[in-house]
Amino acid sequence: MERRATTGRTPDGRLTVDFHARRAVADGRVVDLTYGDCSLLLGLIEQGEEFRDAGDLGRRVWNFSWAGEREVAVRLGYLRAKLGRDWVESTARGHRLGRPPLPDTAGPPAP
User: Among the residues of the chain, which ranges form H helices?
Assistant: First the structure.
C-alpha cells in the first residue's frame, strides 16, 4: 500500500495541513480537522490543479472502491464549512482545492 504524506502545503503557502495534529492553518487561521478531513485535504493538495471526479477522489484518498458522489460531497461539505466555501471547488468536471481571494490585510479604513 502506498504511504501517504502526513503534512501538506499549497504552493502559495496559504494552507498547510498536519495529519498527526489533525489541524490545518488556512490564511493564518487554525482549523481543527477529523481524520477524514485531513485525508481528503491532503489528497486535494496532492492532486494540485487537476479536477477529479468523486469516485476517483474516494479511491485515491481512502482506497474506497465504493466511494460515490454522495459520500465525497458530504465530506467536501464538511471541509467547506470548516475552511470556508472558497477553499473547495466543485464543478461538472470534478473537485479540486479552490483558490479563495486573499484576505484583506489593509485593515479598517481611516476615519
Answer: 35-47, 54-62, 69-83
